[in-house]
Amino acid sequence: MSARFDATGNRSLTVAAPNDAGVPGSERSHDREGVAHGVIMMIKICGITNQQDATAAIEGGATAIGFNFYPRSPRYIAPERAAEIVSPAGVRRVGVFVDEAPARIEQIARTASLDVAQLHGAETADGYPASLPVWKAVRVGPGFDFTRFRDCPAEALLLDGPAGGAGWGGG
After folding, report:
1. Of the listed 53, 126, 152, 160, which one is catalytic?
2. Catalytic annotation on 152?
3. Following DSSP, what letter does each residue of 100-152 receive, concatenated?
């Protein structure tokens, strides 16, 4: 599950279920009652803009922290500023992007020491950055068809609610 702020400053929660072998959440078993075992919850706090917030998120149990590189967001952070925020080994650094060019994502990832690109726009697999894993956010609502993403090469899909006029990340 991840928490982040949308373009209007509202907080939203999103669930991430990584699907790659060896990634937390990928090894699941169920007992006779259908209860899942062996599932590791991932907690990502997004909208980090300073060291104090990053430290609080990590001390609170976050396994990932997110930096918003969408310039129209009130939680936007410059890549150079994100690079100054320290996080321990084992805490994934996630960059949030909206319709950004793959080359620009990779440049920001190098500058800010990102581990993952979280994409919230109309990106398709051929527009994913080649140098780091992708978490793809998809809008869900009435009539949502999960089968459209059956062959999605992203490491994880983030199921996001309606935008409420924000245009992205408003669920």
Report:
1. 160
2. no
3. --HHHHHHHHHHHT-SEEEE-SS--GGGS-SSS-EEEEEE--TT--GGGGTT-
List the structure tokens of 167.
């245009």
160 flagged as catalytic: yes
Are residues 133 and 155 in contact, defined by beta-carbon separation less than 8 angstroms? yes
Catalytic one of 20, 31, 46, 152: 46
- Give this prediction's pTM: 0.74
Sequential pLDDT tens for the chain (171 residues): 343 444 434 333 333 444 433 444 434 444 455 455 555 678 999 999 999 999 999 999 999 999 999 999 999 999 999 999 999 999 999 999 999 999 999 999 999 999 999 999 999 898 899 999 999 999 888 888 888 888 889 999 888 887 654 454 443
